[in-house]
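Ticket #4471: structure output looks truncated?

Reporter: J.K.
Steps to reproduce: submitted the chain below (197 residues) through the standard prediction queue, then opened the result file.
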Amino acid sequence: MANHRCRSNNKLCCIGGRFMRVFFGLELSQETALAIDAWRERQFGEPGRAVPVANFHITLAFIGDVPETALGTLCQAVDERLARRPVPGSQLLLNQTGYWPKAMIYWLGAETWPPELTTLANTLRSSAGSVQKKRDRNVFVPHVTLFRRCPEAPPAPLEPPSFALPYRRFSLFESRERREGVSYHPLQDWPLAAASE
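Returned output as attached by the reporter:
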């Protein structure tokens, strides 16, 4: 039996030709997101376009544009893979920053992370094969994007970051483009297995 829960009023298997841009990710608690934002404001000027606090998340697997009618198939593929190989929840320590010049992104991430999180990301990327041929092949680096459109990396923060991020579930998000900007909306949640002692 599927163990995810719906996070919206959308019917995943409705009839229609609408495409949705979706990805799997970890949601940050409001407390953690606000703490990261306060730290960001203390450390940096305006090296690029600041990502809104409401959009802070960690991408596990970018799926891209899929028909709304295919979301049920995608969720079922995730259910089946997790049933065969459960992945435990754990915790990340967001304690380093980085810069990707090609994408012009400055980010906050983890120096190390549980290997099971990489396993989860790879599992979700494999699940994308149920709805499309193209797969996200970027190296998985768990991070929160702080700024976009940075022509260069800002100076290193004077106050080193240190944010604990426990995670016990992950979500399927829809990315919606509006005149006022992009927003992310969780559609489905999956609990992770209890961590072994």
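Triage note (M.O.): checked the attachment and the full token line is present. Confidence is low (pLDDT under 50) at residues 8-15.
Status: closed, working as intended.
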